[in-house]
Design goal:
The strands form two sheets. A six-stranded mixed beta barrel has the order 4-5-9-6-8-7. A two-stranded antiparallel ribbon has the order 2-3. Helix 11 runs parallel beside helix 14. The radius of gyration is 30 Å and the shape is elongated. It has two domains: about 220 residues, no CATH class; about 200 residues, no CATH class. The longest helix has about 35 residues. Strand 7 and strand 8 form a beta hairpin. Helix content is about 55%, strand content about 15%. It is built from 15 helices and eleven strands. The model has no long low-confidence stretch (mean pLDDT about 90).
């Protein structure tokens, strides 16, 4: 977990900035308590005097923390999957001239290190440039349990693949229980499948039960399945996986049942080929060899996974840009104004108190830190607890924020979100309270008491 947190902070400027701001706030708070313990306790008592206003202010910041945590989680996740990494790049091989990609299944053998047809251009000193655990093929099979009434609840779209490729190659599957892969690989059950929890609920089925699908993208290839396992809550809640050999066998059976006539899409049933390489240099080398090969029956292209996903999310680009650069900053500005207004009211009500404090020997700086400290205490705690509560609630209940975009049904809130809340609450409180606190510092004793007299 600590490695994951470190990667989140080190590889994202927002997480790094939030962490730096959070650490500065924590260090400053400790220094404040150590240097002015009585002033700190006085600030705590002042917040308790008008508990309703303090609660409303904290509630407003908590709502801000909740909304920004939800919004920024989606932005963070999309940025994460669309930014090309310097290591462990994944090449996606597709048909060059159509979307969706449709390739003959035998073409995969040229890129499979375990195949005798593996391209010699992809070897060095007799050894493949990548291993069998760095290779994966995908087809997509969709079907409905009720062809007379096709709805999202009756539709299921499968990742068709080899079970042994799930854990080493699929994103966020490295912690999958190996027993699920074993159950899917059972030779006695080629019709086995794994479902996400959402699809299991939609079908109203349990593990061990069976169902039939009428295909929506391969007419005539209607299949029966047995549920042998369920994915844990998370990214694959609405997904499903079936075996590639069962899928291929269905086309052979179709040919037998139709007077040796092949299915119209039999030679177009391979959609994606995935290859993992170590770095950009290896990506260029492998990609050039694949695109330059004359062995493929159709012209292919190579691109990074981040590039392909980025193209898929192109329709959401303006919305994401608006959330990132307009909505989130706008929310923070509004909340800073709310905080400024609340602190200004407090300062106006306490002008006499400030004057008395100066008479008693409190310096202008101590009064400034008192007012600023009260606001920062409310903002930091409200932001931290809001982000932390959002993290725990959504991740424990649904495995993340249930907001569907394409194949992403849920967005897991990262651990660094705790620092987002601390930074947002503290920064908002500081911006909103700085001017009112300075005005409290500048309260003139003579003016206050002349009005009282």
């Amino acid at each position: 977990m600590f490695t994951r947190i470190y990667d989140q902070i080190a590889n994202d400027y927002v997480n790094l900035t939030a962490t730096i701001i959070g650490l500065i706030v924590v260090v400053a708070a400790i220094a404040y308590v150590v240097a002015y313990p009585r002033l700190f306790m006085l600030g705590v008592k002042n917040l308790q005097r008008n508990f309703l206003r303090t609660g409303l202010t904290a509630g407003a910041i908590a709502v801000l923390g909740l909304m920004i945590t939800i919004i920024w989680t989606i932005i963070y996740f999309i940025d994460l999957i669309t930014v090309e990494r310097s290591k462990d790049l994944k090449i996606i091989v597709t048909y060059k001239w159509s979307v969706p990609s449709q390739l003959p299944m035998p073409d995969a053998d040229y890129l499979d290190p375990s195949s005798k047809k593996f391209l010699p251009e992809l070897t060095e000193n007799g050894k493949p440039l990548y291993g069998s655990k760095d290779f994966m093929i995908w087809s997509f099979y969709g079907g409905t349990t009720d062809p007379a009434k096709i709805t999202p609840d009756t539709l299921i779209f499968f990742f068709v693949m080899n079970p042994e490729q799930i854990i080493p190659m699929m994103d966020d599957m490295q912690d999958l229980d190996p027993k699920l892969v074993e159950a899917l690989s059972d030779e006695k059950k080629p019709y086995a499948c794994l479902l996400g929890v959402d699809k299991l609920k939609a079908l109203n089925k349990k593990v061990g039960e069976r169902f039939k699908l009428t295909s929506v993208n391969y007419k005539g290839i209607d299949l029966a399945f047995e549920i042998v396992g369920v994915f844990p809550d998370g990214r694959y809640n609405a997904s499903a996986i079936m075996r590639m050999d069962y899928f291929n066998r269905a086309f052979d059976l179709y040919k037998q049942k139709n007077n040796n006539a092949t299915h119209p899409l039999a030679d177009k049933r391979l959609n994606l080929i995935w290859i993992r390489v170590g770095d950009r240099a290896m990506f260029d080398r492998v990609g050039s060899a694949i695109e330059g090969s004359k062995m493929f029956s159709r012209e292919v292209k190579c691109e990074t996974a981040s590039s392909l996903i980025g193209s898929f999310l192109e329709a959401y680009r303006d919305i994401i840009w608006g959330m990132k650069f307009l909505l989130v900053p706008g929310m923070m500005v509004v909340m800073a104004l709310v905080m400024a207004n609340a602190i200004s009211i407090t300062v106006r009500e306490r002008r006499t108190e400030m004057a008395v404090m100066k008479v008693l020997g409190f310096t202008p700086n101590q009064i400034f830190f008192l007012i600023l400290g009260e606001a920062m205490l409310v903002g930091a705690l409200a932001g931290l607890l809001s982000a932390g509560g959002t993290f725990l609630f959504f991740n424990l209940k649904w495995g993340g924020i249930p907001f569907r975009i394409g194949f992403f049904p849920v967005f897991r809130i990262p651990e660094s979100a705790w620092m987002w809340g601390l930074a947002i609450g503290s920064l908002t409180a500081f911006i909103g309270a700085a001017i009112p606190a300075w005005s409290a510092r500048e309260v003139k004793v003579s003016e206050v008491f002349s009005k009282v007299a």
